[in-house]
Amino acid sequence: MCVSSSSGCRGSTWLPAAAAGGTGFFRTLLTRCRTPGPGQSRTLDRCRLSSLPSPPPPPGTWSSQLSRLSHPDLYRLSVTDPDRFWGSAAADRLRWVEPFHRVRDCDLSSGRISWFVGGKLNVSVNCLDVHVEKHPDRVALIWERDEPGTEVKVTYRELLETTCRLANTLKSHGIQKGDRVAIYMPVSPLAVASMLACARIGAVHTVVFAGFSSEALAGRIQDAGCKAVVTCNQGVRGARVIDLKSTVDAAVKSCPTVQHVFVSQRTQQPAAMGQLDVPLEEVRHP
Questions:
Q1: What domains does the chain contain, in order, with CATH numbers?
Q2: Where does residue 34 fall: left (phi above 0), alpha (psi -120 to 50 degrees), or beta otherwise?
Q3: Which Pfam families match (predicted)?
């Protein structure tokens, strides 16, 4: 199974019309996110490949047949006929760019592990678009911030729009399929959107804990060969304000692969901006 970004953020399939232009919501969500002021043997049996692997179940098998089974019956089926169980679940409950032609090709004795062979999907679409189509205003994330009584609820529609705008921002600054992006951010909806945005365009993200030193961050950027970093001006943790942008500035001095640093404002404290820096609040799309 692989992540497809061939369509990336082009067309209505991937980008809703509301996400293609303007910065109203993007700035609104960024503003809402700110802080004012400061078992081995059994596995071998299940995954061993039979001499004649069965083809995927026909579409609709899960919804028409398996969804009516009780939990014990479903579990029993997953053990006795994993191809039918997982093939039906994957075919009916995930959205595929290209359908898989074989449920699994596994042989642990030789180290060959492949699931949903031939299939292509986009993780971001399955996390967001499928929910927006059914219930766009349902809450996707509840962010319990460090400041008591200031929780932020983000709907699937809002998260999709933010993800698409971040994805377009990355693409407009040269981030392509296969490029690596370091995410050095505090826990927030924007951190989630950054990961989903990378998946949407086929970029590879590496999340670095926003408490690591500049040396530790630099080492991870260098190991991955990151082309960009996504960060915030500051983070808030346990009533403490932590400068993140200055840590990134120190780290990228020894990371020649970094071409852009995308910066969001978590607090009201302005961050010093340099030649590599892209302030997310000021990004506009045609």
A1: 123-282 (3.40.50.980)
A2: beta
A3: ACAS_N (PF16177), AMP-binding (PF00501)
